[in-house]
Amino acid sequence: LPKESTSPDTPAVPDIELSTLPEGSFAVTPAASYFDGYGFTKEELENGALAVSFTNQYQEIRFRFPDGVDLSKYDKLVVTMASASPEQTDAVALKVIATDAELDEWSNLTPFYTEWGVVKYPGGDVIIDLSEFGDKTVERLSVMSNEGAFDAEVYIYRIAFLPKEGTTPDTPDEPVIPY
């Protein structure tokens, strides 16, 4: 993974050692699950990681899980990421979107959960407890620039869902590839 930033104005990002996931976890590389978005640039890095640059507030990159992730079997979302600069104070929001999401007034799918102000420097796991949403199936994850993300760069290394304790859900043999 990158040791140097893709922007000359930001410090180098250290290597990220991916944590070991429990058996039955569902994990994808960001490059394999990238879907769409607006107002960003991305660069694919080794091992399927992405460097994502935002220039304004409310820009987002979206990742899709075509078969959905059933939260009756998984209860934690883990996004392994790094903010490119220690000066970022409010880098991104992580928006979790279900298959039954309704459209908002701007025709965007409404997330059932949003984690605001995510800053992870020098990097690591952002763990979101989704146990209260066992009736949902996750279709998408959006990473959106917040107010403090002007000219921001983040690195996204892995997206994973951890199984509920005592369960071992069936997981695909291959990473999810969006359609």
Question: How would you describe this structure to a colleague?
Answer:
The chain is mostly beta strands and 179 residues long. It has one helix at residues 30-33, and strands spanning 26-28, 34-38, 40-44, 50-54, 60-70, 74-83, 92-98, 113-118, 124-129, 137-145, 152-163. It contains 1 helix and 11 strands; from the N terminus they run βαββββββββββ. Strands 1, 3, 4, 6, 9 and 11 form a 6-stranded antiparallel beta sheet that branches. Mean pLDDT is 82; it is low at 1-6, 9-14 and 173-179.
In summary, what is this structure?
The chain is mainly beta.
Secondary structure elements and pairings:
Elements: E1 26-28, H1 30-33, E2 34-38, E3 40-44, E4 50-54, E5 60-70, E6 74-83, E7 92-98, E8 113-118, E9 124-129, E10 137-145, E11 152-163
Antiparallel strand pairs: 1-11, 2-5, 3-4, 4-11, 5-10, 6-9, 6-11, 7-8, 7-10
User: What ranges have pLDDT less than 50 throughout 5 or more consecutive residues?
Assistant: 1-6, 9-14, 173-179
| Percent helix range | under 10%
How many strands appear in the DSSP assignment? 11
Determine Rg (CA atoms, Å): 15 Å
Shape: globular
For the structure shown, list the relevant keywords.
mainly beta; six-stranded antiparallel beta sheet; globular; 11 strands; disordered N terminus; five-stranded antiparallel beta sheet; disordered C terminus; 179 residues; single chain
